[in-house]
Design brief:
The complex is a heterotrimer of chains A (281), B (235) and C (262).
Chain A lengths: L2 H16 L9 E7 H5 L2 H13 L2 E7 L1 H9 L5 E4 L2 H9 L3 E16 L13 H11 L3 E3 L5 H12 L4 H4 L4 E3 L4 H10 L3 E5 H6 L7 E4 L6 E9 L9 H12 L1 H8 L2 E2 L2 E2 L2 E2 L11
Parallel strand pairs in A: 1-2, 1-3, 5-6, 5-7
Antiparallel strand pairs in A: 3-9, 4-7, 4-8, 4-9, 4-12, 10-11
Chain B lengths: L3 H14 L2 H34 L5 H11 L4 H12 L14 H38 L3 H11 L1 H17 L2 H7 L9 H10 L3 H31 L4
Helix pairs in contact in B: 1-10, 2-5, 2-6, 2-7, 3-5, 4-5, 4-8, 5-6, 5-7, 5-8, 7-10, 9-10
Chain C lengths: L2 H7 L5 H4 L7 E12 L2 E12 L3 E6 L5 H9 L6 E6 L2 E2 L2 H4 L2 E4 L10 H11 L4 H14 L15 H14 L4 E5 L7 H16 L3 E6 L2 H7 L2 E6 L2 E7 H6 L4 H7 L8
Classes of the chains: A alpha/beta (281), B mainly alpha (235), C alpha/beta (262).
Keywords (chain A): Signal
Pfam family, one (chain A): PBP_like_2
Organism (chain A): Halovulum marinum
Chain lengths: 281, 235, 262
């Protein structure tokens, strides 16, 4: 009376657990990447082109750069596609990656409320603008999550000679969240936020915010791609990963990246070296 | 924000559109959550019944532990399961990370303590009523657990619903072990988190309304079943 | 020596022991049972027996320890001191399986009438193939066949008690223990219960029944154990106890007078 339904339940659960994920039998790779590439819609644009050509499905795990690198270090991914060059080079140097290739760049911008309390609108010198924001004590929201964007932002503060750690909790506020969540928070509290342009263009909750600071070469945001090293992580799908990396830095892949536009605006600018002179370090 | 009426309208339009992506996401949500709840029942019901029907050394500690584990933060569970299933973790060879199976495992860890702890209470109450009769008949331990669970089945529906509610609403664990991979491990809650991070707040909220409707449907169906049982004096 | 010992020396109290060979062997026997809780003696040196093939009625006021005695004899609770014997040997699990206890408030599983019977039979190790027939026979006997597929808990109090007795008898016990089975029933239901008890007795089942209804004791008892304040006040053949009670407590009870204290 009791045993039968219970056994049925157990069988059901076991079956559910054993049922493979979608397209399990098709070849696939896992790419550890960042929220900026995912949220901007770039992957939705280029990955179907790659899959159509090679038959390889690409599964993207979009997290902060810090977490993406950490996951890849654990061998939980076949390709790392992030934007924090020093950390990427350290990743390769530690033996986790095969080689690092430049892929593309976009740039960071500082967005702010129309009232512009720090008077930085229209500036092109990011360091000077940040110094002005600090001097005005105008609220600034940082991701504070060790992501690529966060690291780039902290470099600029350092150049401006401002100790944001001391101001944390005051005018400097760290959300510890992704780019989108940080933009939601920043626009909500009338603060300045540094964001990558791609995320900003595709962000749906801009309100009356606008770009205040842009065009500083220091705010270029370089993306790199690395195949995870099968010698360090024997479980990785090394061959499929190589095919993907090669395609992304090929003329075809680069053209696909350049072709992604929102409202007629190009979001990412491919700059991969020719395969024959790809840097390895 | 354009107000809640508009969001509700968008939610309704989403449901009526039959958008294949949305259907896929809802399907995966249900599959993951229902599987986790089923597994949670297989583990939690006997565990709770044993704690409710027997006196044994360390029982008080077990009950306190089960009750405390009900409050496990999903993110912590997600991290624990991630570290276990990671390629460099002890269960990495299974290759379950970033698959629905990993999400089922994480949610099972979340709901099992809830099901076990609440089952313990239900079974203990029922056992208070049955204990002398069972002792008189000489009902053995296994038979006793089975009979208590079966007779409490309609009360346990509420317990199972509590587990379902916890699992279906949870995002912290599944996003870590599932990775929110489009068409593979993307479920309702991770989609809501994603759309929120994209700043598409109306769409995120509309998806939230869809999720709520889903939970309402499941709850209403189960409670209707229970009501019919109450009328038959089986509950 | 305690007072209860002196009682035990009186001929009617120890009658089955003293007249060994003349009266039937005790099927179940209490020897100097004492039960204490929170320093209070609920039963104090109780010795009595349920003779095989006879109907023993345990009487006494509320709180006199009747129900506790029944539970002790069935092994549901352990005495603080003293022993319970089954056919002369200490009561154990297997001996308890030869008994069946019907509670004052029937405990029915949240299942159908028939399923309640089949559950008891399954627990008692009756093979699956034999359960249905035996359950149906028990229902027939209890005249509950028409209700076989109703949920047991929607039955009336009287029907539930008849079902409880049917369930107990389906297990084919040697000793049927009943704890005030008619305490909350109307006269018609009571009559049906008493018929069922009589029928079981006619089939050779030894009966021990707790009641505080003197009329019921007159109708059913072969032997009577009269408890007062946790001690045996009377123990002997029904005719003797009912017509010539020795203790003031029993006399007052049977005459319908109020009697306070030991």
């Amino acid at each position: 009376m009791f045993r039968r339904p219970f056994l049925a339940l157990a069988a059901l659960a076991a079956a559910a657990l054993a049922t493979p994920g979608a397209a399990q039998d098709a070849p696939f790779i896992v790419v550890q990447s960042t929220t900026s590439t995912q949220n901007s819609g770039l992957f939705d644009h280029i990955l179907p082109l790659f899959t159509a050509k090679t038959g390889i499905e690409v599964r993207v795990v979009a997290v902060g750069t810090g977490q993406a690198i950490r996951n890849a270090e654990n061998g939980d991914g076949d390709v790392l596609f992030v934007h924090a060059r020093p950390a990427e080079e350290a990743f390769v140097a530690a033996g986790h990656g095969v080689a690092r290739h430049d892929v593309m760049y976009n740039d960071f911008v500082i967005v702010g409320p129309p009232a512009d309390p720090a008077g930085v609108a229209g500036m092109t010198d990011a360091v000077a603008a940040l110094a002005q924001i600090a001097a005005a004590g105008a609220p600034f929201v940082s991701r504070g999550d060790d992501s690529g964007t966060n690291k780039a932002e902290l470099r600029l503060w350092q150049q401006a000679g401002i100790d944001v750690a001391a101001a944390s909790g005051g005018w400097y506020r760290e959300t510890g969240s992704g780019m989108g969540a940080t933009l939601n928070a920043g626009t909500g509290m009338g603060a300045y936020v540094m964001t990558d342009r791609a995320t900003w263009i595709s962000f749906g909750n801009k309100g009356d915010y606008r770009i205040a600071v842009e065009g500083d070469p220091q705010m270029f945001n370089q993306y790199g791609i690395i195949a995870v090293n099968p010698e360090a992580h024997p479980n990785v799908r090394a061959e499929a990963a190589r095919v993907f990396v090669d395609w992304v830095i090929s003329a075809e892949g680069q053209a696909a990246i350049a072709g992604y536009r929102i409202d007629g605006r190009q979001l990412f600018f491919p700059n991969a070296a020719k395969p024959d002179d790809a840097s390895t370090g | 924000m354009d107000g809640f009426a508009e969001v509700l309208g968008q939610a309704l339009a989403l449901i009526l559109s039959g958008d294949p992506d949305l259907v896929e996401i809802i399907g995966l949500s249900l599959r993951v959550t229902l599987s986790a709840v089923a597994l949670g029942c297989v583990l939690g019901l006997p565990l709770g019944a044993v704690a409710g029907a027997f006196r044994f050394p360390g029982r008080a500690a077990v009950v306190v532990l089960m009750n405390a584990l009900m409050g496990l933060p999903p993110v912590v569970v997600g991290l624990l399961v991630y570290l276990s299933l990671s390629a460099s973790g002890p269960l990495g060879v299974l290759g379950l990370l970033y698959t629905p199976a990993a999400m089922i495992v994480a949610q099972t860890v979340l709901v099992t303590p809830i099901i076990a702890a609440l089952t313990r209470q239900v079974v203990e109450d029922l056992h208070g009523e049955y204990a002398e009769q069972f002792a008189s008949l000489g009902v053995g331990p296994a038979h006793r657990v089975a009979a208590l669970l079966w007779d409490a089945r309609y009360s346990l529906l509420t317990v199972v619903l509590a587990g379902f509610g916890r699992a279906v609403a949870e995002v912290g664990a599944v996003i870590i072990v599932g990775g929110n991979i489009n068409h593979v491990t993307r479920v309702m809650t991770t989609t809501i988190a994603l759309e929120t991070s994209k700043g598409n707040l109306e769409l995120a909220l509309a998806l939230g309304v869809v999720l709520l409707a889903l939970a309402l449907t499941v709850n209403a169906a189960v409670m209707a079943l229970r009501a019919s049982a109450v009328r038959a004096a089986y509950a | 020596m305690r007072e209860v010992r002196m009682h035990a020396d009186e001929p009617f109290c120890g009658a089955p022991l003293l007249r060994r060979g003349l009266t039937p062997v005790p099927l179940a026997e209490a020897r100097d049972l004492t039960l204490r809780a929170d320093g209070q003696a609920l039963l104090d040196g109780v010795s009595c027996s349920f003779a095989a093939g006879r109907r023993t009625v345990v009487m006494g006021a509320n709180g006199s320890g009747k129900s506790l005695l029944l539970r002790l004899m069935h092994g549901l609770i352990r005495p603080t001191s003293g022993t319970v014997l089954w056919r002369g040997a200490p009561l154990d699990r297997r001996a308890r399986a030869r008994q069946a206890l019907v509670f004052q408030t029937p405990v029915m599983l949240r299942r159908s009438v028939l399923a309640n019977l089949r559950f008891a039979l399954a627990v008692r190790g009756v093979p699956r193939c034999a359960r249905r027939a035996r359950a149906e026979a028990a229902l027939e006997q209890a005249r509950l066949t028409a209700l076989a597929h109703r949920p047991a808990r929607v039955l009336s109090g009287g029907e539930q008690q008849r079902l409880a007795i049917a369930r107990a008898l389906a297990c084919r016990p040697e000793l049927l223990l009943l704890d005030e089975p008619t305490a909350s029933l109307d006269p018609a239901s009571t009559a049906l219960i008493e018929q069922a008890v009589d029928a079981a007795h006619a089939d050779g089942v030894t009966v021990a029944l707790v009641t505080h209804d003197a009329g019921q004791a007159r109708r059913l008892a072969d032997d009577i154990v009269f408890l007062h304040a946790g001690r045996v006040a009377e123990h002997g053949p029904a005719a003797q106890v009912l017509s010539r009670p020795r203790s003031e407590a029993a006399r007052a009870w049977l005459e319908g007078r109020l009697h306070l204290g030991p």
